[in-house]
Amino acid sequence: MTAALAVALLLPPVHSSSGWAIASMIAAIVFFATLGDLLIASAMRRLDLDAIRAERGIAGASWAVVTNLRFVCGVLGMAGGFFSLLFALSHADVSLIGPASASLTFVSNAVAAKFFLHENVDGRRWAAALFVCLGVGLLSL
Fold this sequence. Notes:
By secondary structure, this protein is an all-alpha fold. Helix content is about 80%, strand content about 0%. It has helices spanning about 1-10, 20-45, 50-65, 70-90, 95-115, 125-140. The longest helix is centred in the N-terminal third of the chain and has 28 residues, at about 20-45. It is flat and about 55 Å long.
């Protein structure tokens, strides 16, 4: 993946990307960013950092976090989201990529939190997600 990303970043920017290409770039950003957020949140909930810090100090707590496989995979997911964002920004307008990827990541995080982390996502958050989707729809017109 790293070699493909390096080659993609070396390609000249193409500002006439099709709608499907832009949608695919936004989808990649949203997927990787949501995956990263989900894995990091899950990892941090499984670690009792207060108990670890009391037993092994701040260095032990830090070590417990950075050696947690779920946390490391989450960081890699967030890095994938970041590099997908860089790629998208080199091929499409920031006025579309920025708001669309950020807002759709908000929506996908709410869905993932509800179904994977079993969080209580209340009506206000679902209403906000609906308005975000409507806003992204207006941007794409």
